[in-house]
Sequence to fold (53 residues):
Amino acid sequence: MEKKKLIDVTHISSRGSSFRITLPRRVINRLNLTEDDIIAFYDDDGVKIDKIQ
Fold:
């Protein structure tokens, strides 16, 4: 079993029919995200998150 490094954790909240995920600052910094960026979720042997260029 591969040991994975934990970066941070967060909570999920519900807003109507949608869910909200607040990204921790460590994750924001690691992905080089800014306020107006868009992120995508990919299915790649698990869920991967990346910034859309």
